[in-house]
Amino acid sequence: MQWRVKSGLACTFTRHSSPVPVALPAQPLLTRADRRGHPRGPPSRPGPRATGGRKPKLNARQSTTVRRMYEAAGPDGKRQHTVAEIAEAVGVHRTTVHDYLNKER
Questions:
Q1: Residue 22 host element (H or E)
Q2: Of all helices (H) and strands (E), which one includes residue 2?
Q3: Is 71 within a domain?
Q4: Which of 28, 33, 93, 100 is positioned for an S-S bond with 38, CB 3.0–4.6 A?
Q5: Is residue 97 part of a domain?
Q6: Residues 74-97: pLDDT tens digits?
Q7: Residue 74 structural domain
Q8: C-beta of residue 23 within 8 angstroms of C-beta of residue 12
Q9: In what order do the strands lie in the sheet with 20-23?
């Protein structure tokens, strides 16, 4: 097989065909992240979201409030607050409260 470069095009020869022009990019292909300026490799400041991802629904203070309200017990030994009440207090959905409670176990 042989390559001939002529004015930005390369021609390739196969066994049973005539030369087929193949366009070569002038620059190396960039990924979408590279075009937007995202650095490659490990982040400069490691943290809880160092690798990216979705922003947490609850901050550290709200997460502590959720845990404290969930573990609070009344004089009869039962929970003082329902998950729905806790969710309303911090402004999220019930499933988010359950997610945080399960994550912290």
A1: strand 20-23
A2: none
A3: yes
A4: 33
A5: yes
A6: 999 999 999 999 999 999 999 999
A7: 60-103
A8: no
A9: 3-6, 9-12, 20-23
Amino acid at 7: S
Work out the number of other CB atoms within 10 angstroms of the CB of residue 82.
Answer: 13
Predicted TM-score of the model (pTM): 0.51
Extract the tokens encoding 55: 């922003």
Mark out the alpha helices in the chain (DSSP H runs). 32-35, 60-71, 83-90, 94-103
Contacts of 101 (CB under 8 A, 6+ apart): 66, 67, 70
Q: Which residue in the block uniquely carries the two structure tokens 């988010």?
A: 96
Q: Are 58 and 96 in contact (CB under 8 A)?
A: yes
DSSP 62-87: HHHHHHHHHH-B-TTSSBSS-HHHHH
Domain assignment of residue 36, yes or no: no
| Contact in structure between 24 and 35 (CB atoms under 8 Å) | no
Residue 42 lies in a domain: no
Q: Which residue has the tokens 């937007």?
A: 36
